[in-house]
Amino acid sequence: MMTEAILNDQELTKKNIVQLLGQLTNVYQTTRTERQEIAIQFPPENEEFSLLEELELLTVNLRGYASQFHSTGRIVNKDHVIEQLQAMRVLNVPQIASFYFGSNNSYEQIKSYIRTLDYLRLLLLEYLQFQSD
């Protein structure tokens, strides 16, 4: 009974990952205007990457994992990916955190995108941690 519940949870998590992957693409497209404003309002200061570049890096990594998972049903180097996902906390990136918490009620679409990215990260992590080899 317990293992059946766990399997159902895993199936639901799988569906959610695939759904979020599609949602991420849609949400990203709606942020175009905000991204153009952000590029002007938040230029890179002393950071290696700008706010938008940091978001791009996270997006590429997370979409890569989610796409691999979607097309093959698994993720190669599971333990390494788990470590990466744990280290990849979206709001731990200084530019993203200061933007997210410091721009009051502005840029709601990009903030929604940031939340969706982090949710995808958490779902992937959850799925991989409870997946049996």
Can you walk through the features of this model?
The chain is an all-alpha fold and 133 residues long. It is 77% helix and 0% strand. The protein contains six helices and no strands. It has helices at 2-30, 32-41, 51-72, 78-87, 94-102, 108-130. Helix 1 (2-30) crosses helix 3, helix 1 (2-30) runs antiparallel to helix 6 and helix 3 (51-72) packs across helix 6. The radius of gyration is 16 Å and the shape is elongated. It starts with a helix and ends with a helix. The mean pLDDT is 87.
Main traits of this protein?
133 residues; mainly alpha
Write the layout of secondary structure elements.
Layout: H1 2-30, H2 32-41, H3 51-72, H4 78-87, H5 94-102, H6 108-130
Helix pairs in contact: 1-3, 1-6, 3-6, 4-6
Classification by helices and strands: mainly alpha
Beta-strand share of residues: under 5%
pLDDT under 50 segments (min length 5)?
Answer: none
Distance between the termini: 20 Å
- Note the overall shape: elongated
Continuous helix count: 6
Count of strand segments: 0
Order of helices and strands: HHHHHH
Q: How much helicity do the residues have?
A: over 70%
Please give the radius of gyration in angstroms.
16 Å
| Biggest sheet statistics | none
- Mean pLDDT, nearest integer? 87
